[in-house]
């Protein structure tokens, strides 16, 4: 059921973990939400199935060609387009009122950028957009009047808590981290963990890339950088605390010492729905906390020695410029090499540190400059072995 008042959504990354959570939210919205556009990379059968159910105006595929898909796979009332340019065009289209940015990795930047250029409201799951081009995209949003509403659960929690005070009354943003599947493993055990171990997350069911990022705690690093640009606080006002139950999704400490937290069982449908219902709240579809049962919440400081990826996040959030693009690109390649068993678990952070140290840092880059270094970092990361490692400062042009 849709109504004339339905909010029309362009969902970029419809077949992923966030994308299917978003489909659940739209399905349960009783006509308050409808899809204008759905996009996917290669899983065209799943996209076609979603089109059968939701009948969007338009569907876009980026990783397959028209000849790769079955004839009549899509309903005849859905316009099917191909390629990354079509994603950008549809993200910017006046036919949608909100863009859900849920493509994984730096590939999510282009659609999000086009939406920001067009002055859209963006429900942002793709944290890599802000990691790669945070300062540039926030400046662009200032110019076009585009607004970001966070989907990432930590940033959604902070967004909600910030509504209880003024930015100048904030002492710090406290991001919670589950600690991932290896929270209690020793350094020696971490040397030997496999990709299958790392894909088994204790509290969240997510896509493979972010699941590996959670195991290394690189996900928290990317979230520190995301928070830096999204909320405009310096890295010195951002902290991380490990909270294995993933019930407290993050907190804001105000100058008087009050800490406001947002709590709920781990389920991404809640922050997705909040981003789409904001500034209202609607009846929720995710499970509630059962306060009739005894349960405990624990908090502990992160172990930065065993999880060195965290230091990278703080450093890159402080530096800005091209550092985020290089860290993100190096990490994307490192994660896929780890999944192909070409790197050990601990080499992921070592590779990232090494490529970051070797890059030609630019404090005020253009978008072209950022994309050039993204490309450079990917090539270096594909070639990297622990023997080519270096640990020189950022400004060094080469190892
Ligand atoms: P996923 O791998 O499950 O899904 C990714 C989606 O992006 C799919 O629809 C896929 O078709 C599409 N895609 C992949 N490569 C593409 C490309 N090159 N061009 C265009 N489309 C492409 O990923 P996910 O776990 O849903 O994560 C999506 C984003 O949301 C990531 O940035 C992630 O960090 C963020 N996020 C995810 C979660 C979660 O719980 N999964 C939580 C917070 C934030
Ligand atoms: Mg998160």
Overall pLDDT confidence = 95
Structural class, from helix and strand content?
alpha/beta
Low-pLDDT sequence parts: 391-399
Please give the number of β-strands: 11
* Termini Cα gap: 59 Å
Question: How much helix, percentage-wise, in residues?
Answer: 40-55%
Q: What's the number of helices?
A: 15
Small molecules bound in the structure, each named once? nicotinamide-adenine-dinucleotide, magnesium ion
Strand/helix succession: EHEHEEHEHEHEHEHHHHEEEHHHHH
C-alpha Rg, in Å?
21 Å
Enumerate the strands of the largest sheet in spatial order, edge to edge or round the barrel.
Answer: 4-3-2-1-5-6-7
Apparent shape: globular
The largest pleated sheet is described as: 7 strands, parallel
Strand residues, percent: 5-15%
Properties at a glance:
399 residues, 42% helix, binds nicotinamide-adenine-dinucleotide, 4-stranded mixed beta sheet, disordered C terminus, globular, 15% strand, alpha/beta, single chain, binds magnesium ion
């Amino acid at each position: 059921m849709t109504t004339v008042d339905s909010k029309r959504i362009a969902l970029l990354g419809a077949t992923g973990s966030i994308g299917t959570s978003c489909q659940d939210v739209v399905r349960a919205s009783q006509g308050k939400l409808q899809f204008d556009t759905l996009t996917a990379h290669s899983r065209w059968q799943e996209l076609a199935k979603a089109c059968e159910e939701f009948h969007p105006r338009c569907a876009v595929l980026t990783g397959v060609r028209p000849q790769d898909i079955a004839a009549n796979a899509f309903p005849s009332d859905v316009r099917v387009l191909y390629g990354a340019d079509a994603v950008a065009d549809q993200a910017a289209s006046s036919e949608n009122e909100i863009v859900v940015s849920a493509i994984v990795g730096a590939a999510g930047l282009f659609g999000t950028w086009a939406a920001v250029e067009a002055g859209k409201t963006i429900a942002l799951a793709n944290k890599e957009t802000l990691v790669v081009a945070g300062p540039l995209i926030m400046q662009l949003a200032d110019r076009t009047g585009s607004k970001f509403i966070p989907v990432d659960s930590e940033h959604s929690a902070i967004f909600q808590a910030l509504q209880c005070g003024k930015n100048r009354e904030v002492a710090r943003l406290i991001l919670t981290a589950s600690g991932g599947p290896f929270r209690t493993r020793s350094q020696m055990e971490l040397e030997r963990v496999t990709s299958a171990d790392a894909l088994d997350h204790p509290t969240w069911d997510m896509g493979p890339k972010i699941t590996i990022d959670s195991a290394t705690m690189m996900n928290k690093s990317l979230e520190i950088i995301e928070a830096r640009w999204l909320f405009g606080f310096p890295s010195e006002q951002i902290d991380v605390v490990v909270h294995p139950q993933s019930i407290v999704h993050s907190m804001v400490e105000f100058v008087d010492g009050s800490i406001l937290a947002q709590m709920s069982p781990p389920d991404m449908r809640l922050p997705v729905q909040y981003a789409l219902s904001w500034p209202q709240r609607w009846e929720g579809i995710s499970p509630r906390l059962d306060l009739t049962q005894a349960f405990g919440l624990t908090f502990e400081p992160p172990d930065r020695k065993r999880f060195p990826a965290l230091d990278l996040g703080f450093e890159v959030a402080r530096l800005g410029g091209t550092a985020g693009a290089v860290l993100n690109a190096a990490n994307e390649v490192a994660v896929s090499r780890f999944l192909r068993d070409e790197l050990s678990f601990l080499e992921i952070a070592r590779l990232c540190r090494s490529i970051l140290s070797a890059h030609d840092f630019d404090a005020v880059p253009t978008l072209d400059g950022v994309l050039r270094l993204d490309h450079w970092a990917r090539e270096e990361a594909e070639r990297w072995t622990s023997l080519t490692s270096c640990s020189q400062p950022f400004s060094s042009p080469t190892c």
